[in-house]
Amino acid sequence: MSSNEPELYIGLMSGTSMDGIDAVLVDFSSTQPILIGTHSHRWPDTIQHALIKARDIPDNELSSLHVLDNQTAEIFSEACSALLANTSCPAKDITAIGSHGQTIRHRPDIENPFSLQIGNAQTLAVLTGIDVVADFRTADIRAGGQGAPLVPAFHQAVFSNENTSRVIVNIGGIANITVLPEDATQPVIGFDCGPGNTLMDAWIKRHKKQPCDESGVLAASGKTDARLLANMLMDDYFQLAPPKSTGFEYFNLEWLNTYAVNDMDIADVQSTLCDLTTTSIIRAINQYTDTPGNGKTEIYVCGGGMHNQTLMQRLRAMTKHPVKTTEALGV
Predict the structure, then answer these.
(1) DSSP state of 145
(2) What is the residue range of 295's domain?
(3) What pTM value is reported for the model?
């Protein structure tokens, strides 16, 4: 393929929040990828509820999971079709689809580690007529890795800068960081630092029947409980050195209930959960950057958490590093 011809790829992703499928169309024919178009595709309520329920399916009840695997692929194909329609791009021009699928189980630390994503790649390929690349986590797990987070390789390719060190903070259901040293000979570090939105979303959904704390309004109205925050930060996960990864299997309402939060003020707990996210992020950054806190490292936030104004304000208040979103980098 000549340098004048586009190399078009579709990327599909649904995070642990399960709020929808993010679809992007990107041209990789140049040195830097060119974003052609994006589409956010909501899960149908019935499929979303089934996906949430699938987290609790016993290992021996796989027949329903097989059905859901294909149903998930069908919705992913709808996301592709909508993206192509929005960008007026014919399917024949697409080189391949990279489809992550929907994570149902992530168990990298058990005796026989695995990470399970559904959204059958073969079904997706048949429905779209486009080659599909999938199963991104298994090879890393088989090599002794965590299979997560996936984004550091992308962050390195797109956001590295020879003039400054950068940290990319991805705040989805789980928060992860990618440390990009100014010196290209130094290793890139990426790992899950702890809960992102997952605990805040679960708490407000339980008490306010809302899917998320829009702009962090509830957290802003509360007062952080310093003792509760300190106790949470003593959890073993925060003491682990990378490589490490986590998910909703660990940080969930069951985990939160061990801290006797149900008798506390709802807003105070939400504020504390917001600070749990920001504190674990900043601690991780300070530990794994060479110049913590002196402003020589740029921090860029992406993911749903960047829309939480309270969270962003607290991140900025906790560090002397400049904190921006990746929109400042054109992404």
Answers:
(1) S
(2) 151-329
(3) 0.78
- Residue from 108, 35, 111, 102 nearest 74 by CA: 102
- Report yes or no on 62 lying in a domain: yes
Does a structural domain hold residue 69?
yes
User: What tens digit of pLDDT does each residue of 238-276 get?
Assistant: 999 999 999 999 999 999 999 999 999 999 999 999 999
Number of domains present in the structure of the chain: 2
Residue with tokens 């168990």: 107
CA of residue 263 relative to chain centroid, distance = 31
d(CA 46, CA 29): 39
Tell whether the torsion through CA atoms of 208, 212, 213 and 215 is positive or negative.
negative
Q: Do residue 47 and residue 191 come from a single domain?
A: no
Checking phi first, is residue 13 left (phi over 0); if not, alpha (psi -120 to 50) or beta?
beta
Per DSSP bridges, beta strands 165-171 and 174-180 are: antiparallel
Please check whether residues 130 and 161 belong to one and the same domain.
no
Q: Give dist(CA 19, CA 13) in Å, integer.
A: 11
